[in-house]
Amino acid sequence: MAPVILHAIILQATSRSMIFRKCATCKSRIVGIAHNHELRSAGVLYYCVECNKEVDEYQSNYELPMTVSVLNGEKVQNIVAYDRAVELLLGCNANRLGELMLKDTAILDELEEQLIGTRCHLVIRQEKKKNKGKKNDRTIVEAIIPANPLFMPLFANNEVESWEP
Ligand SMILES: [Zn+2]
């Protein structure tokens, strides 16, 4: 199916869960299991089910669920944006946002506040998936184009280096 462009307003963006981590070895999703402040992975110990071991080296990726208002507010739609789309909007990749989070724990809340209400054009595609016989269609965002031509990526002027003590 050809991509569709939607004129939308972001109503909700779930920034709390927008970063997910993959095992550096096998690239499967890892889960946080314990806190240990000695670790460089932000004091969280991760476990990889595939490798069957605890991992301290991982790769971060974006998965940002959003609720948008479309058709002049007549319809509300749930969408999900991944790496490239989120990166362009924020001006930084998931690894970098992870580093910023360590220094400023409120950063995700601030980000969410800034995203909500943003008018944008969304390039979307439908992903049809069946999960245990149940239809599980999702709307994937290929690109988020802010409607305001003066829009600046949220972290454009926020180099990681400047956050170093
Ligand atoms: Zn692994």
Query: Which CATH architecture?
Result: Beta Barrel
Q: Which fold does the CATH topology refer to?
A: OB fold (Dihydrolipoamide Acetyltransferase, E2P)
CATH superfamily annotation: Nucleic acid-binding proteins
Mean pLDDT: 85
List the secondary-structure elements in sequence, H or E: EEEEEEEHHHEEEE
How would you characterize the overall build of this protein?
The protein is α+β, with helices and mostly antiparallel strands. It has one domain (4-19, 62-163): Beta Barrel (OB fold (Dihydrolipoamide Acetyltransferase, E2P)), CATH 2.40.50.140. The chain is built from 3 helices and 11 strands. The chain has helices spanning 83-90, 94-103, 107-115; strands at 4-13, 19-23, 31-35, 44-48, 53-55, 58-70, 75-82, 119-127, 130-131, 134-135, 138-146. A 5-stranded mixed β-barrel has the order 1-6-7-11-8. It has a 3-stranded antiparallel β-sheet with strand order 3-4-5, with no helix packed on it. Strand 4 and strand 5 (53-55) form a beta hairpin. The longest helix has 10 residues, at 94-103. The radius of gyration is 17 Å and the shape is globular. The structure holds zinc ion. Residues 23, 25-26, 28, 48, 50-51 line the site of zinc ion.
Features:
OB fold (Dihydrolipoamide Acetyltransferase, E2P); 165 residues; single chain; three-stranded antiparallel beta sheet; 3 helices; disordered C terminus; binds zinc ion; five-stranded mixed barrel; alpha+beta
Question: How would the blueprint of this fold be written?
Answer:
Layout: E1 4-13, E2 19-23, E3 31-35, E4 44-48, E5 53-55, E6 58-70, E7 75-82, H1 83-90, H2 94-103, H3 107-115, E8 119-127, E9 130-131, E10 134-135, E11 138-146
Parallel strand pairs: 7-11
Antiparallel strand pairs: 1-6, 1-8, 2-6, 3-4, 4-5, 6-7, 8-11, 9-10
The structure holds zinc ion.
